[in-house]
Request: fold
Amino acid sequence: MSDNVQNLLAAQSRTGNGKGPARRLRQGGLIPAVVYGLQAKPTPVSVDPGAVMKAIATPHKRNTLITLQLESGVKKVLFKDYQVDPVSRRLLHADFLEVALDKPVLVKVPVVTTGRAEGVAAGGILSVSTHEVTVEALPESIPVQIEVDVTPIKIGHSLHVSELKSPQGSKIKYATDYVIAYVAVPEKEEVVAAPTAVAGAVEGAPAAGAAPGAAAGAAPGAAPGAAPAPGKPGDAKGAAPAKGGDAKGGGKK
Reply:
């Protein structure tokens, strides 16, 4: 869709400025608004906030071409800016830009990606860094959106604004060739190595693979297989039999 939809919005001229008149307008169901553009003085008006939201409830949204109907005639305008209540989110103020149908305007148009990037199929992650671009077009030829085919983007590569195709009747404007979308290399998972055994971490611990009780000088009552404690000098129970001696007498005849 390239032809802009024109909606009718009634407006009334207003003379009072400041918080007091604005408060009274809101109490009466209207909000203050200003019409700028076409080298004319700003025109203060009042509009119905519900009618404003209804007028831009089109595929073009804020780029909808509006026919503003005043007591003095009609103006072709675009919804340029607004203020809302921070709590209730109700519309408090609106600004409109008057345009000429035969003169191009600069507007922000949303970017919509299509396709599946080759880099995504290879495990990469697609990131869209720009969600709208500046477009120059006649008021009735403002595109609804700019479609961006991300299919050719390989992993580690990006798509720049200069590579986009302008819709018919419009031209994408830019000062620098900024990135629209890119496919990032996935982060590698960190591999945590298993802790290595520290030799001698426990003092006196037997080496790995040693037989139970292999440690020298095992205390009495140690686990089965431990080496016996050496006997004391002169201890019959711990002394070995004398060579050639009688086990009972222990002496020569």
